[in-house]
Amino acid sequence: MTALIIDGKKIATEIREELKGEVFKLKHRGIVPGLGVILVGDDPASKSYVTAKEKACEEIGLFSDDNRLSSRTSQPELMAVIARMNRDPKINGILVQLPLPRHLSESDVLLAIDPEKDVDGFNPTNVGRMVVGEKAFLPCTPHGCIQLLLRSQVKIEGAHVVVVGRSNIVGKPLANMLMQKSPYGNATVTICHTRTPDIGSFTRQADIVIAAAGKPNTITADMIREGAVVIDVGVNRIPDPTKKAGFRLVGDVDFEAVKEKASMITPVPGGVGPMTITMLLYNTVESAKRANALV
Ligand code: NAP
Q1: What is the pLDDT of residue 32?
Q2: What are phi and psi of 101, to 5 degrees?
Q3: Other C-beta atoms lying within 10 Å of the C-beta of residue 43
Q4: pLDDT tens track for 204-232
């Protein structure tokens, strides 16, 4: 069997077109959803993520409030910017690009963001709401994985999903979302991590395998059941002198071998990646609708 490739770019474009339509309707009511973006320091990868997020906002008609702060910014200075955005009714979502420079406390920053504007879904209040099944902003990468499955007509309900990785931004929230009694859940979920002996004995039982380990070749063909669906969240740089940048991107899955066994698979790049920013836009539009009592 050769797997159908799940095209994350295409699905992300579809969702962005839907959002553009929603933003257009909101503008007719005088509402322009706004995203407050904070970048501290000049890490090149973070800069390029932030630039991509701002460009995506512009493309669907959102307003973005761009705050690039020096790497010497103190915790109280950063908190003051967040407090200003929390109060500003034009800002519906606040995004603090992580990681922060080491002298700043990430957990204090995430706690300081008003949960009603926490479009990354990292504030513990939102995480708690999501876990108990209340209305919450769903974290973007896990939500992106679920949208890829749903929009590819993969049945999550009743499926056995094995998630490899248990980080706070991907594995844990994803596993929680998949087991919720909700249209995007009702799966039977197993989580594997570095202390799991014989991960293959679990993944071989899975209808859906989601790899979020951050290590190339974590999932090889012998670990996959014939016909399983495979979602690869991993983004890893592999040295490659044939590339101008000197590296290429690969996921956590041995794509070439696994695609001969799976029924569907996401590529890297072009799978989960384009969905993450898209779900951030989705949450920002959702937040603007909530703030105006439209949902
Ligand atoms: P992370 O914080 O480093 O967590 C990795 C998780 O994977 C940990 O729970 C770790 O287990 C587990 N793990 C590592 N190696 C493993 C192995 N060989 N076998 C089984 N489990 C293993 O990473 P993250 O932030 O969740 O990100 C995971 C990957 O997704 C990274 O490549 C990252 O770049 C990518 N990512 C992509 C997007 C996107 O938009 N496409 C967004 C976010 C992240 P322990 O807990 O036991 O250490």
Answers
A1: 97
A2: -55, 150
A3: 16
A4: 999 999 999 999 999 999 999 999 999 99
CA of 234 to the centre of ligand 1 (A): 7
33-114 CATH: 3.40.50.10860
Long-range CB contact pairs, 22-26, < 8 A, 24+: 22/285, 22/289, 23/60, 23/61, 23/62, 23/285, 24/61, 26/285, 26/288, 26/289, 26/292, 26/294
Q: What is the pLDDT of residue 52?
A: 93
pTM value > 0.90: yes
What pLDDT does 211 receive? Answer: 98
For the chain, the domains span 33-114, 140-273
Test site for ligand 1: of 166, 202, 266, most ligand atoms within 8 A of the Cβ:
166
Residues of the chain with pLDDT under 50: none
Active site residue 53: yes
Helical residues (DSSP H) of the chain, grouped into ranges: 8-28, 44-60, 75-87, 106-112, 124-131, 140-151, 171-179, 199-203, 255-258, 273-291
Reply yes or no on whether 97 is catalytic: yes
Q: Are 263 and 231 in contact (CB under 8 A)?
A: no
Q: Are strands 93-96 and 34-40 parallel, antiparallel or unpaired?
A: parallel
CA of 192 to the centre of ligand 1 (A): 11
State the CATH architecture for 140-273.
Answer: 3-Layer(aba) Sandwich (3.40)
194 lines ligand 1 (CB under 6 A): yes
- What is the C-alpha separation between 195 and 178, in angstroms, rounded? 22
Task: Name the 3-class secondary structure at 264.
Answer: strand
Residue 250 φ/ψ, nearest 5 degrees: -130, 160
Pairing relationship of beta strands 63-69 and 34-40 according to DSSP bridges: parallel
Residue 85 in tokens: 């955005």
Number of helices (H) and strands (E), helices first, in the chain?
10, 11
Question: Could you report the per-residue pLDDT of 131-178, keeping only the tens digit for each?
Answer: 999 999 999 999 999 999 999 999 999 999 999 999 999 999 999 999
Residue 155: active-site member: no
